[in-house]
Every structure is written in structure tokens, then in C-alpha cells.
Amino acid sequence: MRDPTLRDVAQLAGVSPRTVSNVVNGYAPVTERTRRKVEQALAQLDYRPNLLARNLARGRSGQIAVVVPYLDTPYFSELLQGIIPRARERGYNVLIDQTDGDAAHERELIRRAARAFPFDGMILSPLGLDQAALSDRDPDLPLVILGERSSDGTFDHVGIDDVSASRDATAHLIGLGRRRIAAIGDQPYATGEAAQLRTRGYRIAHADAGLDVDESLIVRRPRFNRIDGADAMRQLLARPDPPDAAFCYSDLVALGALRAALQAGLRVPEDIALIGYDDIEEGRYSNPTISTISPDKATIAATAVDRLLQRIAAPTPLPGIEVPAGHRLIARESTLGRTSGG
Amino acid sequence: MRDPTLRDVAQLAGVSPRTVSNVVNGYAPVTERTRRKVEQALAQLDYRPNLLARNLARGRSGQIAVVVPYLDTPYFSELLQGIIPRARERGYNVLIDQTDGDAAHERELIRRAARAFPFDGMILSPLGLDQAALSDRDPDLPLVILGERSSDGTFDHVGIDDVSASRDATAHLIGLGRRRIAAIGDQPYATGEAAQLRTRGYRIAHADAGLDVDESLIVRRPRFNRIDGADAMRQLLARPDPPDAAFCYSDLVALGALRAALQAGLRVPEDIALIGYDDIEEGRYSNPTISTISPDKATIAATAVDRLLQRIAAPTPLPGIEVPAGHRLIARESTLGRTSGG
DNA sequence: TTGAAAGCGCTAACAG
DNA sequence: CTGTTAGCGCTTTCAA
Q1: Min Cα–Cα distance to chain B from A307, Å
Q2: CB-strand contact B71/D, under 7 Å
Q3: From start to end of B121-275, where are the E strands?
Q4: How many Cβ pairs closer than 8 A exist between chain A and B?
Q5: Which of A48, A72, A113 faces B77 most closely, judged by CB atoms?
Q6: Domain ranges of chain A
Q7: Which of A33, A219, B116, B310 is the most buried (most CB within 10 A)?
Q8: Which of A144, A133, A83 minimizes the C-alpha distance to A111?
């Protein structure tokens, strides 16, 4: 049978649809008596508003889009874990899309060109789009960017301070007495901002300690995944003068590097110490466990949602701001050794 | 400015909205000349249909819900990775929700009680709901169940044959000469069907080989995650007669167990061989790599979407069917040792 | 405080 | 082949 409509309820309660709407939405004041009648009818019919109709009338969709490059990257799925409930709490549904880092796909999304993807705002973790490309978008789309681009003043950006986090990671290695420290994951091109910030932190840490950087130890990699980490490590280990430590630009890279190092017969951290970035759960269970930079994911997720909903609600476009999130260094076995492991 | 509507286009092209709609949707045949005029107007105005309106008129939402217990469980995120593009291709958006295995939440969803969650059908991986509870739902909700419940005739179920997969895994261990094989993850209660099927396969493999099962080696665990695996392994290793192998009910459990075994100073697989279930990428990079049962995730994802869309499109409810998916055993270092590692 | 009625933008009977 | 028109179910302006 057809679902009961507002009109059905109105009829049963003997009032107009307008009044029922008022009761349902708690809008205008309604007489206690009327409200009671309406509520009874509502219950009796088990009425549920048709959201499509409501949204059409209200001119909004009640949905936000969350767009990440890869859904199966633990960092993103852990972030989503925080974003979804927060959005649901605040009355929004979450549409998810993944781009595989495809620039065209990302561009289409921020231009709202996708015919079949209705949303009131978007949380995007761009990968294919560089800073400039981000500005070429639907100006009316409330947008929050995650990761390492910076705000151009028309959208919010939430993320941790990559430079200082990377400096911390590198300094940790230096503090442990390591001197030939590789950096795995640099991306010296327009879309590689995230990587470049990390490289910058790596350099600063060296400078802080009065150490020179061996440029040949900075390894470029297109993605922050396991394969890239493993490949890079193999390449480094093939050198006559391999590194005694590596700052990996993601935990996945570190995990891949770890695998390659162990396969090559090295001991971690005795022969080579490893530190990652992201603090994914996997790094807490690997053998050895992975030292890492832990971004405050809960805060990032919550803040991203809150900012986005604010932007959506704002009658006139809000200025875009930078929202910093915290991070901390977590030292585990891959740098400290088993003694203090847990 | 306001987005152009169908009416605007019609006006510009000098035809009726009906004709524009026909052109946009490719419905009725349209004169070449008319079509050209309309298409030109369409392009000129950069017209994009309002989906809310379209869906309201069509009486559907154009969205499917995908509901999993945990988004950050690799198995699910890898599955989602397959589901989303497939659904998008077929013109559907994907709404995601996670339940944390909460029965009440799952029940609410299949009853379509959630006021603010519009979808035409649902792909659900139930955790909190047992077989019986699954039948108590909105009878009009096109539903595809993933995992280990079986179809009650009103929804489709897609999944691999857990019993035979588990038998394969156990037989692999037996074939390697192991005789004290633990099973980690049994759940002897209503919602633990998945686990029970695996235990059954474990028993069958023993029977096949003419071996007795040591009941005390079957370890119960509420969840299939890393912590449970680690805890279970610690408990097993504390025994005077520890096992020489373990069939873990998920890769995550195996990874946790691996961690605990190595921490206890054991060698894997020399002292204890481990096999998991799910074939998540993490198991291909752990040290040692994890032998596992690999379900055909691509097929599961694609089939689930296809079946669901069929159910949605069907004018009259389709009978629910069982859709089997394939699996294969992948032997890696955690059972074979490093010699053949890759 | 409540009713009547006009949309929101699109689809789809029903003519013609 | 194309125009007219009545909804889809809800919100909301305007009156009363």
C-alpha cells in the first residue's frame, strides 16, 4: 500500500496539511489541542515524511558528499568512520565517492557537473587536483578540503601541520643517532604538495641538527602505498651505502618498506629504523610495530563535518579558513626496538 | 542565478517541456529537427536536470544504501571499493552507513524506520541481526545480504561457501603435517552463524583426515579483529600443550595472532603455522605474509549490485536466491615458510 | 493559530 | 511526434 502522506494525516486529524507540517517540523506555534489530534493521527498512520518531496520543496538534498581517492586506504576509512556518524547526527546523509586520484573526476565533482549526484556540500581529499585547479569550481558549492592543499579563501581546509610533523618524525630518527636517513615519498610536481611539505620538514630537521641532507636519499614515489614503499626500500638497499633509517610519508609506505627490509635480511630497527605517518591500526600490529606521526583523526573528521554544515547553513558564503588539527609522534618498535614494545 | 529548468529550455527551443523531457531521457521518438533545436538550447543553457524533482516524480530516490558493521575493516572497504563504481555506472548513488554491529540499528534500517535515509534498495552485511531477525523487515525493501546468513526467500544472499572454504583452510594445515590445530573465532550463539560455518568446515576437515578434534583448541571470540586474535593466541600459548597451527576466522584475527606469537618468541610457521580468511592486502605485506582464503570480492561486489538493481527494477517482488561466489586458498609464508615467499 | 493554494522541477497520462 | 496538464509530497506565502 501507498505510504501515508501529509494530506492523509491532515484528513484524519481534521486539519489542513499546513498544520500537520507545522507539527511535524515544530515550526509555528500550534494549539495544544490541535497538536494532540495531529500527533495521534501521525502515530496511527505511522507517518514518515517523504524526504525527496521535502528536499525538493526546501531546495536542498540533505546529503553531503565525501570524496576520497581510495576507499580502501586505511587512513581514509578510519576518517570516514568518524565523518559518517557525525553527519548522521546532524541530520545529513553521506554519499561517498572515490576518485582514484583522477583529476578529471575530481574536477567534475567540484564543478558539480555530475548529473546524478545531489549534495549540499562536499568534503574532499584531493589528489589529482593541484592548488590552482581547486579554485576552478562551482562557486556556490560549500566545500571543505582535507589534506594538504591550503585554502584559497573560498573553502575551508582542515589538516595538521605537515611540515612540523615531518620535522618531528625526522628529528626522532636523528635523536636516535641515525645519520643516513632516507625520505620515501617525495613528489616534486604540482599535485605533490603533501609530499613536498613532508620533504620540507625533513630538511628542516636536518638543518636544526646541523646535518647535511644527502639528496640521493630522497626517494620519489607517485603514491603513498605499500608497493611504493617496498620498491623504494629495495632500491635504497641496493646501494653501496644504504640508509640506517627512513622517514616514510605514510604508514603504508613504511609497512611496504618494512616488508622489503625484512625480506632483505635486515633487522628493524637495529639495521634500519623506520617511521611512518598516519597512525593506522595496522601499524600497531605489524612486526615490529611502526613508529608514526598520529594526526588527530577524530578532530579532523568532526571539524570537517561541522565546518561544512556551517557553510551550508550560511545565507551568504563564509570566508574560507584554515583549521589546524593536532598531531603527535608515537614511537614504537620500528625505531625503539623490541625492548619497549607493547 | 537560478539553475535553468526544463521549462526554460522548452521556452528557448520553442517546444513543450514534454518534448525536452523526451530528448533528455531519450524516451519517445523525436524528429531530428526538433531534437537539434532542443539539444542546442540544452547546451546553451547548460541544463542539468534536478534529480530531486525527477526522483520525486518517478517515485524513486536513485540511491542504494550499503550498510556494513565497520567501515575501517579492510574486508569491507575493499568490498566497497568494488560496489561503488559498479553502482555509479548503473546510475545509482551509494549511501553508506555503519552499524558497529548494533542490532537495533540494523533492524531500524531494514524496517526503513530511519526517517532521513532515502534509498531504493539495500546491500547489508548483518552482524547484530540473526537469521530470524532478518525476516522482520519492510517487505517492500529490495535487499541483498552479504556474508553468512542465508536467504529466507525474500532477499538475495551472495557469499562464498564458508564451510568448504574453512575445510580447505584446515586441510591445508593438516596436509602440512600439523596435528594440533586451533580454531580462532567461534561464536556459538544466534548471530554467530558465520563463525559456526567455519567451525563446521574445520571439523569436517579433521573428519576427512580421520583426526579427532581437540575441543579445547576451539577458541571463542566475539569479533573478528586484531585484538581478538592476539588475545586468543596469548591464551593458547599459555597452555602446557600449545597448538602447532591455527585456523583464524579472518585475516585480522590471523594478524593479531601473528603479532602475539612473534612477541612470545615463536617462529611462524616453524613453531606455529597460521592461516587467515578474507585475503586483505595487509596480509600480503605482513611479516611473514599470511596464508588465507581468498573470496572473489570483485564478483561479490558486482553481483550484489546487479542483483539489487534487478530487484529494484522488478515490477513484482523477485524470489530471493542464493548467489554463490568463488574462493580459493592462497598459501603464503605463514604456512609455507620463507623459502617460497614472494 | 490555521486554511487555501501556489509552487519546487520533473515525469507521464492523455489527447491531438 | 508533440502539447497540455495533472500530479509526485512537501513547504511556505498570504489571508483569514
Answers
A1: 21
A2: no
A3: 121-124, 143-146, 156-160, 181-186, 218-220, 245-248, 273-275
A4: 121
A5: A72
A6: 57-160+296-325, 162-295
A7: A219
A8: A133
Q: Distance, in angstroms, between B48 CA and closest chain A CA?
A: 6
- In this predicted structure, the answer to whether residue B331 has a pLDDT above a threshold of 90 is yes
Check the CA dihedral B90-B94-B98-B103 and report its sign: negative
Residues 6+ apart with CB under 8 A from B338: B288
Strand D footprint nucleotides (protein C-beta < 7 Å): 1-5, 7-13
Least confident interval from A5-19, B103-117, B196-210: B103-117
Spacing of B83 CA from D12 C1' in Å: 40
Q: Name the band, by pLDDT with cuts 50, 70 and 90, for residue B325.
A: very high
- pLDDT by residue (tens digit) across A115-162? 567 899 999 999 999 889 999 988 889 999 998 788 888 999 999 999
Nearest to A182 by CA among A153, A206, A154, A161: A206
The Cα diameter of chain B in Å comes to 88
**Class at the top of the CATH hierarchy for domain B162-295:** alpha beta
pLDDT tens by residue, B255-288: 999 999 999 999 999 999 999 999 999 999 999 9
d(CA B48, CA B45): 9
Strand D contacts in A 156-175 (CB under 7 A): none
Please state the rounded mean pLDDT for residues A284-300: 96
**All cell numbers assigned to B178:** 600439523
> With bands split at pLDDT 50, 70 and 90, how would you rate the model's confidence at A230?
very high
**What is the per-residue DSSP string for B15-41?**
S-HHHHHHHHHT-S---HHHHHHHHHH
A40, amino acid identity: Q
* Cell numbers standing for residue B112: 526503513
CB of A54 lies under 7 Å from some atom of strand D: yes
- Is domain A57-160+296-325 classified as CATH 3.40.50.920? no
**Chain B residues whose beta carbon lies within 8 Å of the beta carbon of residue A113:** 48
Q: Does residue B249 contact residue B197 with C-beta atoms inside 8 Å? A: no
Please determine, for residue B318, whether its predicted confidence score (pLDDT) is greater than 50.
yes
Q: How far is B81 from chain A (nearest CA, A)?
A: 6
Q: Are B288 and B333 in contact (CB under 8 A)?
A: yes
In the prediction, which pLDDT does A109 show?
87
Say yes or no: do domains A57-160+296-325 and A162-295 share a fold.
yes
Q: Where are the beta strands (DSSP E) in A277-341?
A: 292-295, 322-325, 327-330
Highest mean pLDDT of the ranges B3-7, B137-141, B233-237: B233-237
Average model confidence (pLDDT) across chain A: 91
